[in-house]
Amino acid sequence: MAETFGIAGRAIGAEHSPYIIAELSGNHNGDLGRALALVDAAASTGADAVKLQTYTADTITLDVDRPEFHIHGGLWDGRSLHELYQEASTPWDWHEALFDRARGHGLHCFSSPFDPTAVDFLETLDTPAYKIASFELVDTPLIRKAAATGKPLIMSTGIANYAEIEDAARAAREGGADGFALLHCISAYPAKPEEMRLGTIEALSQAFGVPIGLSDHTLGSAVAVAAIARGACIIEKHMTLARADGGPDAEFSLEPDEFRQLVADCRMAHAALGPAKHDRKGVGGANAQFRRSLYVTADVAKGEVLTDANVRSVRPGLGLAPKHLPDVLGRRAARALTRGEPIDWSMIAQD
Fold it and tell me: Where is the AFP-like domain (predicted)?
């Protein structure tokens, strides 16, 4: 049984509608007006929350010209970490306006802190939760710092092994977090659907006993819907106003109409889940009456033999089940039978 978990009064778990987060990341392209428009767009999709990332290039990395500080391959090939994060960072003096805009829409707004100063800053904005990014999951002092605020945490597991996830979970619990959830994540940008390994959702749930979600870097909604079917109760997805506008995360972000479809699809998928039903009423409901059953198909005199000329399986389903046909044929009618009557055992003479 997963631990109780919620954000600002919104319960999150398998029995609740999926909690869907629009990740804004660097898709503001350096324009506060665009960032605010992203919040507005997220609200229009039916998402539950918008998420920011709180860092500066200097708090997340170093401006050092060494090979390990440059990206080799992939979407950002050839760029230095400092250069990339300088472009993608959300200025701290924008945060208050973004939090206010989100709250005005009734959206939760929270962020991923990347160092202790970001936690202190986000506390001044009364953030309702903290997100720990995949690459920071090994930073247990940062997790403890966020947990010590008494807020709930969402932690991505992207490139962590189980021992590292356990370390992070211990830091959250011992640090004082008001519950936490784990997100399965494939840290590829964009991620390929065939590499998503969604069975990990159930494995994480069994191993850690907390709500599990998906941080999804694929395009479209298919993988997120499949994740809901595997037990995910949180979906986090990047959103942009238009991929054609470019930006560091644009290639694996959904546009507002696509995000709206994602929300609808995930909610529908969750609504379709439920306990197994094997009773006739539960499976068929009112339509169960139209299943096949045994009926009189020609008038039969009392004492006449029942044959396939006067009894057969038809719709609806008010007579004996078709499996009883061999037991009925060759027997005699206990009374006169009229075409269209459903067969029951009282009609069969006791030899």
Answer: 293-351
